Amino acid sequence: xxxxxxxxxxxxxxxxxxxxxxxxxxxxxxxxxxxxxxxxxxxxxxxxxxxxxxxxxxxxxxxxxxxxxxxxxxxxxxxxxxxxxxxxxxxxxxxxxxxxxxxxxxxxxxxxxxxxxxxxxxxxxxxxxxxxxxxxxxx
Length: 139
Prior knowledge:
Layout: H1 11-15, H2 27-34, H3 37-51, E1 57-63, H4 66-75, E2 83-88, E3 96-102, H5 106-122, E4 130-133
């Protein structure tokens, strides 16, 4: 690359060689090179749909002590077809459970979890539990 001028949209690709020694072609870099944000958005949506991530589905992240998370799930009248993913112990959190539903069932999931939190609050549950819908970070 010495002595060769690279147009600025090509610089991220030119700067990161792949294992074959040729420039890496990441989807975001391709979108920059092509000036094609719609192409990148369509690809990202297809990847998220394949993995079952938002916006193709609705996810709720429930974080807290295992007993509190189990108590919340027991109190919640989850929509039909709800998938429970976890619980997963995390280093910075006591534990996390993900609940995944289809996009049309998202409002029902939200109402069910809000009602369960209200029940736990009225009962003065000792374990705090955090509920986040469509979290930005999963891991």
